[in-house]
Design a protein that fits this description.
By secondary structure, the protein is an alpha+beta fold. The chain is built from 3 helices and 4 strands. A hairpin with a 6-residue loop joins strand 2 and strand 3. Helix 1 packs antiparallel against helix 3. The longest helix has 15 residues.
Length: 109
């Protein structure tokens, strides 16, 4: 872990089937909108690749690893997972990061 307080972030890589782009976007935007209402969620950004619209990156920032675990127990996350599982061209992957700058004590958040 970082030397100073830091937030927990995930970058989730998703490759969806070409005929499932709009369904994936819709389900993901609903999940993102509900997620940012959670107390432990600082950001939930959805990016779509400019050159390959079947590829998305979800950038999620949580106050802690526990906040991420709580997110995974919400009804909206379960609904999203069920809605998108069959839309993916391959299993999604995630990388976990600690924030370096700004730090968890920085007013920039």
């Amino acid at each position: 872990m970082a030397d100073s307080p830091s937030f927990h972030s995930l970058h989730v890589q998703v490759h969806v089937k070409a005929d499932a782009i709009e369904a994936f976007r819709s389900a993901t935007l609903a999940n993102a909108g509900a997620s940012v209402q959670e107390q432990g969620v600082l950001r939930f950004d959805v990016f779509q690749d400019q050159d390959d619209p079947t590829r998305f990156v979800l950038v999620e920032v949580y106050r802690s690893a526990d906040a991420h675990a709580a997110h995974r127990n919400t009804a909206h996350y379960a609904a999203w997972r069920t809605a998108v599982d069959d839309l993916m061209a391959e299993p999604r992957t995630a990388r976990k990061f600690w924030s370096v700058a700004p730090s968890a004590t920085d007013d920039a958040w």
